[in-house]
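Worked example 4.2. Below are the chains of a multi-component assembly; read each line carefully before continuing.
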Amino acid sequence: MAEVRYYDIRCVRGEITLVDIDNGVVESAGTSFFDKAVIRVLGSKGWGILTRDHVDIDSKREVERLVEAASRLAAVTEDHLDLADAPRGVLPPLPLKEDPREVDLEEKTRLLAGIEEAARVSGVGNTRARYTEGIDSVRFLDSSENEYSYEAVRSGFSVVAIASKNGVMQMGSERDHIATGFNLRNKQDLGRKAGEVAVSLLDAKIPKGGTKRAVLDPELAGVFTHEAVGHASEGDLVREGASVLGGKIGERIGCEALVIVDDPSLHEFGFIPVDAEGVAVERTEIVRDGILASYLHNRETLAAVGNGIPGHARSEHGAPPIVRMSNTFIENGDAAYDEILEECRDGILLIGSRGGQVDPGRGVFQFNAEYGYLIENGEKAGMVRDVSLSGEILSTLHNIVLVGNDRKMSPGYCGKGGQSVPVSDGAPHLLLADATIGGRGE
Amino acid sequence: MNGEDLIEKILREGERRADEIEVFYARGLSVGTEIKKGILGNAEESEAWNMAVRTVRDGRIGFSATSDPDRWKECLDAALASGRLATPQQWGGFPKPADLAGTPSAADGDLVVAVEDAATMVGDLLAGAAEHPVEVVGGGADLARSYLAVANSSGVFYGMDRTVAAVSLEAIREQSTGYEFDASPFLADIDARSVGERAASLAARSLSGRDIETGRYDIVLSPVAAASLIGQVLLPALSGRNVKAGRSFLADKVGEQIFDERLSVYDDPFAPGLGSTAWDAEGTPTRRLVFVGQGVLQRFAYDLKTGYRYGERSTGSAVRSGGEGPGIGVHNLFIDGPRVKEPGDERAVWIHDVVGAHTANPFSGDFSVEISNPFWMEGGETVEPIRTAMLSGNVFEMLAGIGGLGNDARRVGRLTIPSIRLNNQQIIGK
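Applying the procedure described above to all two chains together yields the following structure tokens:
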């Protein structure tokens, strides 16, 4: 057999339950099953990685056969990797308030229908709601005799309402996902909110693009944190030379009061009890008092880059672990919301997120708000839509003028390298100076 | 038990318990090599197996899927249970066996799924990138072969092979990045060295761009940038399901001149491509579909379920991704029309790619995105890099009056598209 310095196997067996209701019609409501395994072997240079369905992790012979096959893959690699030692340990699973497996599919469908119906306010022509539930049973073992298993339960929904008038179509959407139990009860308010936002956007204006002061609400400020700082602090991008934050540890990258954290141990939607390499998870302060303090690492990027904390390896089932964020946020400052609006004077308030993207090597990011309001003389004025914000990682954090005191986390899914994992991000309200706002208004 | 025997077994068992049953089956082998630190990093091999079952009983459609052959009974039970909750609808049956008209071009008999071959392609990528003074920060090569089958209780049993060869490379020079990629069913289509060279050239040439003032400019969207924006907005608007549900900007516009008369949009399932196939994901024979002919909207895409519900016929447009049930999509979509020599001789802002296309509003077509690798273009040549800027506009309005189509059509995923010149567009400088 080719050289094997280390191996690990991670199996995820699970169920996904989806309910899809479109304009009152139950399009589908059912459960699917998967059973995926990833076997990694570190050869004399780099990783050989196998993905298989349905592996018997308890069979020594099967494990040996797979390790040998992976070692043959590893033999073609040229990039020499080492693995840093890292603390081990598994946190207890999150307590479930109500186990979704104890709620039958019929009741889930009925509750989702209630949320979808609530979105159908006057003026809304189309509503759609989707329930997603994932039960993952994870088993891990490695050649250093570490072994663990845990179960993760996630439950949540999204609801979209579309309103139209005179050929104009606008959308309102809400979502709520949790890792602490069943999450469909008493949520009609969110359905109603999606409907109301869609209707009010029909009369919203498209803002004029340009440089102005911007207030970000906690959800959008969370996406800002994730896109503008989080990705660029990922150790794999730093190692490859694909991040503008490479070589900047100890340098000031933002205003004095700024603290930015990624914390996989936090009981939010991105919680993991242990990372995908069996490393203990802990709170990691990426930025401390405006200074770049830590990168997010797995064992190989910690060995190669240093200056950071491991325990950030994550993977979608059936995919190899890579460095990822989990729960990413800006800590509270001391500015009250009213103070932030007043200090903004004339600018724009941006609310909710339609997603974002970053080119971490160039240091440029973009994200889109669901809607917003112009701010005139420190007060909320007319509603605006289809507005996005872009900026440069190395300058944008210096433009944070005020940090609010009302941090809130929002759940979502983050894509990287073709893998999607559950995350949350958040922040208090932020005031940004010199924000580049995209909008095609005149 | 091999796939065929298992499918037969599930069909027989399903027929006893439902009016109709359909099994979609996929198995595949793929290898990939990933570039790390400018040399070959990880090597991966993946074997996948997936089976999806749909049952129909009294117009109620049930669905389940599994990646574990031993759990097929549980999967069938779950499909029947899910059918009990689905709202009943008009249903005219799964397709019967038909003479398949076209011949797909989706598999390369010479493609070998071997990690050594993928490693050779990485060598070619890196050799191409070495022609410019850049660092390679990512990319890789993938080779895959899969077998797909759809079978139902009306007697359909179609199977096909699919192959994919794909390469990508990401390069950086200081804070200037460049990314290029290509994918095809045919290994011979892939010029890894050229992909590496083009990515490196973008990174090298985009360095030290000049600022651009906010204002209105003539622009040229490269095929990559055009595919990102059009894919996000136009594809959902052509889905019959979105049309009937009131979610498509194009609903009620059939017969109208919606785009520039030089633009046609059609799906050609028999053209060579990643989506090439003679039957769709539900076993309906595919055919060439013209959605927009010389700017006039002609039709929408339907699958069986939406077709039966609204009295339309399936257009053979069902597609599947992952372990999910079928949805409406395209196989090989072409954006086409008469070409100009280059996309216009006059000075314009050429845009290679955009950041954040997925945030475009699919209902209204409005977007504002960050642009990547923009250059001033003169006489058809990119002459001078631009530092950074945003582009704001509306996809439907843009396509209503274009400045011209370039002579450089390329495949971007399931789209084949040339560069598009657009006059008088809003750019926001910094």
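Take a moment to check your reading of the output against the notes. Residues 6-201 of chain A form a domain with the PmbA/TldD fold fold (CATH 3.30.2290.10). Chain A touches chain B through 82 residues (CB under 8 Å).
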